[in-house]
Amino acid sequence: MAISKTKQDKELYTIAENWFRQQQWKPFPFQTKAWKAFLEGKHGLLNAPTGSGKTYALWFPIVLQYLKDNPDYQKKHPKGLKAVWITPLRALSLEIKQSAERVIRDLGTPLTVGIRSGDTSVKERARQKKDMPDLLITTPESLQLLLASKGYDKQFRNCSAIVVDEWHELLGTKRGVQIELGLSRLKTVAPRLRIWGISATIGNLEQAREVLLGPGSEALMNSVLIRANIPKKIRVQSIIPEKMDNFPWRGHLGLHLMEDVMPIIDRSRTTLLFTNTRGQCEIWYQRLLEKHPELAGLMAMHHGSIGKETRIWVEEAIRDERLKAVVCTSSLDLGVDFAPVETVVQIGGPKGVARFMQRAGRSGHRPGQESVIYFLPTHALELVEASALKAAVATQTVEDRLPFLYSFDVLLQYLTTLAVSDGFKPAEIFPEVRSTFCFQDLPEEQWQWLLNFLVMGSQSLQSYDEYKKVEVEDGVFKVTNRGVAMRHRLQIGTIVGDAQISVKYQKGGYIGTIEESFISKLTPGDVFTFAGRTLEFIRVKEMQAMVRNSKAKSTKTPSWMGGRLTLTSQMSELLREALYTAGEPAGQQSEEIRALESLFKRQRKESIVPKPSEFLIETFKTRDGYHHLFYPFEGRFVHEAMGSLLSYRISLLSPITFSLAFNDYGFELLSDQPVDMQQVLDNDLFTTKYMHEDLQNSLNSTEMARRKFRDIAVISGMVFTGYPNKGIKMKHLQSNSQLLFDVFRDYEPDNLLFQQAFRETFEHQLEEGRLRIALERIAGQQVVWKACKQPTPLSFPIITDGLREKLSSEKLADRIQRMIAKLQK
Amino acid sequence: MTRPLNIHQSNFELHPSGALYWKEQSMLLISDVHLGKVSHFRKYGAAVPQKAIAANFRLLDSTLQDFLPGTVCFLGDLFHSHLNSEWELFREWVSRTSAEIILVAGNHDIISPLKYEALDIKVVPELLIGQFLLTHHPEEREGFFNFAGHIHPAVRICGEGRQSMRLPCFFKSPRQMILPAFGTFTGMHTLEQKNDNEVFAIAEDQVIKL
């Protein structure tokens, strides 16, 4: 029996190999390894970069498995779902579908492929419900929606494979938790299921496999990690300004070097220019076009807020080599093979090595071809980052993606999802939930708390209460109220943004979506740039902003949040090392560091460029007040934490109010009174003792938790974000999560969701672990405190940052009185 | 700690709860309590802590205790929603309150006036007392000084060292005073202070003129 089975498998490989030969391709070893492991019934994680043929590594065995299971497939094709392919970006689903269909068609099988995502029409969804495609391509959110429909267990019963594509993108997010929970259910309802992930290179690949398959699970025991090991040559080239003297010390747009990009564009078939924010993307596109009208028609823009049709058009135009240049954001980071792209330009620091390498990989997409990426600094000190990035690429130093733990908001959403479809029995679901990485060892009391929360909206039954969500019938937890069920389905997902408003021409014609917070600041007649057009705002009608074209010189560009990423610990270490070379002979420096010589000279006039053994503190006074700067070079999150910690500890010495600013190099405490720095040093305020308690007590952690709570409130279903395009009508149900946060703080501080906001703050935002290590490092350094007369080059990008945190130990009324007194002076 | 204020020879006290006491009339003005909002959310599956419900009534009690007014006049949005279980609590509160109660109806007040009248509460669209006009929506009328709510006013204060904060406030213009929202589960709307505005910010237990 066993012998004939292997023989059969061999025949199957031959089918696959023949197909490759017909395409005049040769399968990579990682592809054949994946086929073999899959057909042996194994689960696994495939580590392969974009454009390497990873799709065929897993589509093939899925189809081969079907051939194996159904020798009579041409006569007797069993209906129903056989495999699910999950992609984080719905934009990629079409590409994946085409690959799958190619295999299916060439092998002459009757398999069908369907897509289900937020873009799928109601009609198509209804059709799928009756008659599921054999292979389904979907998003994490749509997978949850399938679990929210009645009889989902029957639909998945014969499913033999689930592939989670771009798993590294999902891993460190709540969408990853959503996948973990979904898989825990599917393992039970689909006993033959094989689980596979595909991931780009990240630091913690082994952990990525464990999270996907479940710690200590049978699936994990019976799994493989396959590495593609395709060597990729990446060349990093910094764009160094010819005259450093005029190059700005601060800024984030990089327009000073715009002209230097032109020869690069001219030399390549197609160039992608990656910007860090959608706002920056808009401005670059606009300015390039103004200065170089000859690019009209040859240049396009691509970002997440632009209408889907436009985006698809741009993607096709790149493939057909109709464009010389595309200004884009992370929206072009993933998937999609663009052969004509020869060069990539990164404008401003990418803040992550993996991201930078992925972007570099967008060029020279063919195996063996060298990828070229230009780094364009937006201010002088970013050249240090460029130097560090080069080192990182050379050593392949890639960061980890940290999985979430105990995300109660996602769990509540998931449990409600199960309650909406067929209902659930806690005794059956609890072990499944605990089998996930996220909820391993979840205490029974907390599980009970969550169940109470779903059923009673509190931990004890109160008189007069009309709370309604999940009900219990014969031990089955169910949603019976149609309104509750409908609202829940509309809100499934873990990506929470500002409310989105569609931007439309009054005459008709959809342009894209913008955050409501931007639109709400506009008054009719205001002109803004969006999607490369100059538009005049007319009015908001339902959830739509009506606009018309304008000839006016543009005044406003939407600013999108989310552009502020932090350096990872690996990257910050490289950054420090790059900076430390400032003191070395020019021959041992990178060209970037050499170019900064004049800046370092200025820095040394009043202060120093720190050496590895030194921790630099600078103080000076300007019109804004008293500046106190600290330079740990640990990345902005650690700086935010350290700034909160330090300002809190200083505020214990005497009543004082600070505003905090930080970037990847250091942080600033700004106050209307000077701080006695000697006292700070004498009192050992950088100690790791009581660090956690002090952080918790700093007002800043509350403010950060408040922001984290915004997402938690939406994901857990506490805040309803409204019916699509009918935002206004449901307004009486839409509360502001800020208010909700205050109510919990005042009346129910032991609520698990409220506490989760703090835990996320400490683990993901303040990065407590990294902070401790950083403080220990500083303890071994010599403190150099420089009292300067004016701002130094190192301080400049920090003190000019407008986004600030606040911390105060003064009594509110005293503070106001003093602010008033100063104003009247 | 309250703050005295004289308008057109009448004496008022600004209370840090957001209520305003009118000495000559022995009348307490309270705006935008939004009772029933917590229950309304709970009914629709959002588990807002129930303790926030009791807080509103506690705050009403303690504020009344400070002045012992003859009349309590609510400047609209007393109830946030349709009738729900909080009405019962409100009924109990009314029965233990000796003051006369008047409701100047606001946009949220959709509960039938008959229900209020059954509790001896007068529901009116507006109230005229001497030169004073009491409404829910701010209104300018020749010859009158207007007390109103609806806006949930807040003010932003900026100081040296790039400090800034946002506080609920009483917002006064030459012929109008907008009261802050009294309720515990209500939002704020920031207003900009112009030259002829007087703003009284609420900072914890104090009312501070800016």
In words, what does this structure look like?
The complex is a heterodimer of chains A (825) and B (210). Chain A contains 33 helices and 26 strands. A seven-stranded parallel sheet of chain A has the order 3-4-2-5-6-1-7, sandwiched between helices. A six-stranded parallel sheet of chain A has the order 8-13-12-9-11-10, with helices on both faces. A six-stranded mixed sheet of chain A has the order 25-21-22-24-23-26. Chain A is 43% helix and 17% strand. The model of chain A is unreliable at 560-564 and 726-734 (pLDDT under 50). In chain A, helix 28 crosses helix 29 (737-747). Chain A is an alpha/beta fold. Chain B has one domain (3-209): Purple Acid Phosphatase, chain A, domain 2. The chains are: A alpha/beta (825), B alpha/beta (210).
Précis, in short:
Chain B: GO terms for molecular function: hydrolase activity; ligase activity. With 825 residues, chain A is α/β, with parallel strands linked by helices.
